[in-house]
Amino acid sequence: MFSEKTSIFISVILLSALFSYSNIKIFPMYIGIFSLIVLVNILSKKAAAYFLEVDAESSIWGWQQYWFAERHKFPKPVPIGILLPIFVLVYSYGLVKWLGILETNFKEKITKTARKRKAWSYPSLRDFDVALICFAGLAAEIVLAFIFISVNPEISKLAMFYAFFNLIPFGRLDGLKLAMSNILLYITAVIIFLASSVLLGIVAIL
Question: Comparing C-alpha atoms, which of 124, 137, 143 is closest to residue 177?
Answer without folding.
Answer: 137
